[in-house]
Every structure is written in structure tokens, then in C-alpha cells.
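Hey, resending since the last one bounced:
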Amino acid sequence: MKSAPLDLYFPAGFDSVAQVTAHELEASWAKTGSGFPKNTRRFPILLQNQGLVSNGFVSLFAPRAEFLTTPSQDAALLGTNDWLPLLVSHELRHVHQNNAAKQGLARWVHGIFGAYGQAVYSNLLIPNWLWEGDAVETESILNAMGRSQIPQFKLPLKAYLATYGVPNYAKMMGKSYQHLVPNHYVFGQYLSQQMTKDFGETFIPSLWQSALNHPTLFGFSKQFKKRTGKSIDHYATDAFEKLTAQDSASVTKKQGYTQYLYPNVLADGRIIALKSGFSDIRQLVEIKQGKERRLTYLGPMIDASMLSASNEFVVWSELVYHSRWGQKQQSRLVFYSLKSGQKMFWGVHEKWISPSISPDSKYVSFIHLKENGQSSIMVYDRAHRQVISKIVAKSGEQFLQPRINRDGTLVYIVKYAGNKSVCVWDFVQQKEIFRKDFGQHNIAHPTVDGNWIYMNYPAGEVDQIARINRLDDRFEIMTKDRFGAYFGYSTSDSLTYSAYTAAGHKIVIVPLKPTSVDLAIHSLESKKGSLQHSLPVKLVSKWNLINPFTWGPVLSSTGNQLEYSIQSRDVFNSLQASAGIRYEMNERRLNQFARLSYQAWFPIIDVNYQSSNRQTQLYIDNKKPLDSLRVDQWKQQTWDVGFRIPFNLTHGAYQEFLQIGSNIGFLNVSGYDLTKRYYSEPFNGNYSFVKHQVYYSKLLSKSLWDVQARKGFVFQANWNGIPFKQKLQNELWNIQAQIYLPGPLKHDGFLLRYAYQQESAGNYRFGSSVYFPRGYLYTSFNQLSTLGIDYRFPIKNTDIRVGRLLYISRIKGNVFGDLGMGKDNLDRKAQSFHAFGVDLLAQFHALRFSQGFELGVRALYVAESKSWAIVPLVIDIGF
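The C-alpha cells again:
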């Protein structure tokens, strides 16, 4: 692209979509950068078409943007827009935001630390709500319908304010385990919109640049106050109070968030719905006469904002991950039998989404997506798995939420050129029998009952359930809910739907009470014509692997190593490489290193090299007293070559991963002059070693309130050895297992650990990965067994704020006990290690950063010393 400093990468066969996207990028480049400094450095953008996730991002780790091109089915995200122009406007704004960190003082940070340092610096000084809020507001301005015009996007903020009142700034940044605080996209968009209204279009870019040029504590708030006379805390409070004035608050202290989505009413009156929330992972539930029963947990569901059920089956689609390649995803249809409780699957190697099943279970429909961007609605005979009907989308059309009706027809929504229409297709006679244009009204979730088509409909500032008669075009509003009504399902005399509240969607059943209204249609004029010219395209070599993107000093987490390195990662993430020098503070020596990891093959190939000047001191006496302390310096070089294969085996509610790996290393030691050595340090010479690893985990997904996975296990095995006949000899192997079990309460749990290790009586010692009893230093044995048990439990979800310094969101506890038994071959008696203790942990946010931290304190009793010890704990530092 010549008019924009962008390079667009795309897969072969995706040319037409790439050309359209490239022209959209050129047309939007200047508009999305309004107010920000101009930049001429080229920036790469990748089109990813092999997945089923609808998203996009800009990263400074190997700087690039990625557009995941599968269009969303979510009306709250998509509106009436086309997917790629929406992505372009949002993600290009992020590109301009990042370019601001290459101006003024911030450019020195980039010069010293590279892109990684730039990312850390920018994200510490600019709050996450402004990053995303400004981008959402940009997309809202540049597209026919941005999220700021969609009631479903804004309703969490309105409902929260009306129910719980205005939150303090720390709670907005840190979120809460008590209530669903609107995320940074939602409140960020509202604040960005208000700032532009109050202070002008150039205010946000100017504030952005000023904050980057003044890296002080609470620098953003200081620069905001300097320009407006108010701190960001007071400004946000005033802005939110404008909304609460429109809808008076009835403040409650009830905690939690649970939502029931997509209710389907069966012939016998049972309701099938999707349940999830703070306390529950996503699951299918049955509600009968007010009593709820869980049917099954759901796996990685492709949420198309709909669910379909007959009297026999419930059907939905799930992601099928490629076991090796993260960006490659397909789908399968899941049929859950309401009679047997068993699941049946269709189409593991396809991209089928938004399925529905006819009330008599004879027919199944779904949207079939292709990697070239084409799509079609398919109707199948379920018993014979034969195609009955096919509707192919025309160029520019998108099908949304098709559903088979009781009368043997199919209802669906067509989005084209910024407008939506609802259509009914007779799949027996293969013809369209009804179409109604709704223009820019953001309708969704169509269902049919007789001659009426029910749908989500934006009635002013709130979405309601509406219906239209396909015989005489009568249009009626069916609900008057305060915050919104969604996913209506009509029977002969009642309407069942999900009503939004600040505590989640609840299922409501009401008698049919329609209100007739005039339907005003406002259609967006479609853009006619085709692309005037094609932009030049060239093949890209996959061997363009070197792309240095960050450099600079890095302090290790232990604080005893300081390295200066250059890191490289190509735009396709095929090769990760780094090289540099490291200062070891313990030995006060410099060493050089280089690391390569090639990840474009099925096995990942890792190559490491390290050259270091080592120093040691030890007593060389053969007997006591030990008074001959000697110091020696020598050179050590290590080469390490290996492979690893990570597998993502997730196919249900359990997160399942497997990794196997093996590597061979070569060690050269020269200049070692002492007559003795430590077991972990070799004499002069050349040595080789081999290591094998296997890791497997299968853990049930966690809800927000769970302190750990409630079920699952982790298994790990390692083998280290010195092959052939060498001066050094040793073999070490171990197995470790962790079992996760539910506790007596809903969100607590037990963790059981076991490890067994065997090490030969050689003249060298490998480092061990075995979990050793807490409170003891690791001790080597020929045979070692360890056991551990933890009982982890939540104590309180809190909302504690200490000024601007601290916001504590949750307090947790842990009671544990450890046992270890070690024995050497020449000793008859085993040595034991015992310890038990209590942990008190707090999850918090410091200095109003969005990044979370988890610190705590441990009271530990060690049997060997018969004493208690109090030690600090660092569990998570948020990065």
C-alpha cells in the first residue's frame, strides 16, 4: 500500500478478501489516526482465515496486527457492520496509539529497550480503558453502527450504575469478585466519548502524548487534571452520575453474577438454557416447574448467540482445535440426547456454526463457512445425513442465526451493506417465501411461531422482544424490560426470554401482551461499484526469519542475574531468537548466550548455546580440620539441541494439554585446576547428556470464584542421563502427579501431590524438578518419595480500597502438609521430612493498575527444627 505505511500478509487463495481489506486499510489509515502524530514506518498486518474465533489484535511482540477474519454472529459486537471494516477501524487506531510511544520522551524508551520496553512503558502510563475505549469510539465514528450505538453493548454499564451506584476508580480498574463491573471496553468507550464531547477531538491524542512525556507516579491523572481542572477519579464519577440521573439507582449489596441464555421451551413445558457466571462454568441446564437440573458441562462452544432444542436433542457447535497449530480451528456439531444424556458429533473436519434442529428432530440446519470467505446455509436430513437444501450467500452478504421452524421452514437474518433483513425459506420447495427489510435496525435471534416472527429489536436505547406478522406486516413490541429483553421463544399463550439485570440474565415467562407500533425503516445506501484497481501482490518467503524487535537489560525474577540481549521474532512467529550477555551476581562473572526456537515445523526445534567464565571455592582437605579453602576460575561452554511437541487436546469442559520433548547437550570445561569439585560441577573435558520430558494435564475449567480447578490431574515424567562411557556418570528419573478434587464447599478444593525419584550413585548430580517438602532445602537421595496435600479455600470477596495505593478484591486461604522420605543405597535407614502450615493470600491491585497481584504470608512448622517460621509469598505479579 502506497497511501498507508502498511503491508498486508494473507494466505494463498484469499486474494479477493485481501484486496478489499487492503483498500479499506488505505481509506481508513488517515481517519483512524486523527489527532495522533503521523508515522511512515511500515507496519505488518496478517489475515488469519483458518480459525473460527472472531477477533483481532495489535502486538508489539514481533510488532504486527492480526485480523481473525471469521465474522462474528454477535449482534452486540457486529451491529449492522461488515466484519473486516470494523476490525480495520478498531485495530488501526491501536497502531496509531502505539506509534505515539515513538514521539517525545517515549522514543528514548523505544531506542533503549525496543518494542517490548515501549509496550511496558505505554501500558503502565496509559490506562487500559483508554486504549480500548478510544478504539471502540473510533470504530463507532467511522462505521455506520459502532458499538456505542448498540444498546446491548452499553447495558452492563447502565444496569450496574442503576443497581450498585457509581464505582470508585480503583474498582473500575481492578474489577470485582462481588459484582460484574463493566469491562474496560464498555466504560472506556463511554468516558472516551464524554471526553471528546467536553474537550474536543484532539483532547485524547494530546493527553496521550503528554502522559507518555511525563512518567511520574499517577502521571496520567496529573496530566488529565492539568488540562481539565479535575482528577480522572472525579471526572469519571461526574460522567457516570449523568447516567444515574437518567435512571435512578436502587443500590443493593447482593453479590454474584449468573446468566441464563437462549431459553428453548419444549412441548412438555421444560426449559433448556445455557447457564454460566461467577459461580458456574458454562453448562446446559433443564428447568422444570421451577427446579433446575444440570444436564452437561459445555466444551469450547462457538457462541453464535443462539441455542436450539427439540424434544429429543439439544444442538450446538464446538471448536475443534488442531492439536499442534493454535490458529487452525474447525468445528463439530454436538447433539445432546435429552433421553440418554449421551452426546453425538457431526462434522469434525468442517467449519459449521449456528446449528438448529427442527422440533420433530428430522432436520438440522447450520452455516457452513469456507476459508476463502464464502458461506452458505445448509439443511440436512438428520437420520440420513443428506443435504436437503442449500442457500449460498451472495457477495457481501452474511447469514445470521438460522433456525428451523415447526412448519418446515427456515428463518434467518441477512446482513448486507449495513442493513439487515429477516427471511423465511421453504427448504422443501427451495424458495424464499418472506423477506422484510429492517434497514439499520440491529435485529437478531429470529424465531417463528405461526405467522409471527419474533426477534431482538432495538426499541430506542433498550433492546426488547418484537414480532412481525409475515402476512400483513403488523409490527408489535412484546416486552418493556428496564435494561433489555433477549432471545425470545414464543408458545401459544406465553413468551419466554432472558431479561438482563446487573446480576445477570434471568429467565422470564410472561403472557403475550403486544403493543402495536409503526416500524420506521432507515436503510443505509449501499456503495455501488467494484474496486477500481488491484494493489500489487508478491509472494513472501517463509525464510525471512530475522526480525530484531526488542533489546535492552532484563533483571531475572530471582534478582541475581542481569542480562542484556537482542530478541528477534519474525512476523509469522516461525523463529524466536535471542543473543546477549548475562551477568551472574553470585559469581560476579559475565557469560554469553544465544537461543533459537524454530516453531514452524510440527516438532519445535530448540537450540541453545552458553559460554561462561565460572568461579568456585571449596575446601580441598581430605580430613578435618577444613582449613584449605581454594578458589578457582574456569571456562564452561554448553550446547543444547532438542525438540518438543506441544499438543492441545481440549475437546470438552476439561482443558487438556500434552507436551513431549527430548534434547541432547554437550559440555566443554577447561581451566579447572582443583583436585576436588562439587557434584554439580565437572572436571576438565568434554561431556554429553540426554534429557527426556513428558507433561500431561487435564483440568476442569474454572469459574471466577473457584480457587483452583475442581477436578483433574497433572502428570509429569523426566529422565536425565549421561550416555556412553564418560568420566562423569549419573542417571536420574522421576515421575510426579497432581490430583485436583472438589472440597466440601462449592469453590474450594484439595490438591494431592505425589512424586517418586530415583538417582544412580554416580559422580555427578543433575538438577531435580521434584516438588520437595516446604521449609527444607533440596537434598539428593538415591530414592526419594514426596507427598503433599493442600486444602485451598476462598475467605472473602472484598472491596477494600486504601486511597490510591491499594485495592484488595479477594482473600484466600490454604492449609497444607508435606512429607518426604529419602534413602541412599548404602544407608539402611531412610531420612524423613515433615512440614505443615497455613497460607493467607490476597489478590489486589496496586496504584490503580489493571494488572493484578497476588501476595501472601505463610506460617510454616518444620519438624526437623521443631520451630515455626513466617515467610512471605509471591504467587502472581500480574505480567
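The chain has eleven helices and 44 strands.

Sorry for the duplicate.
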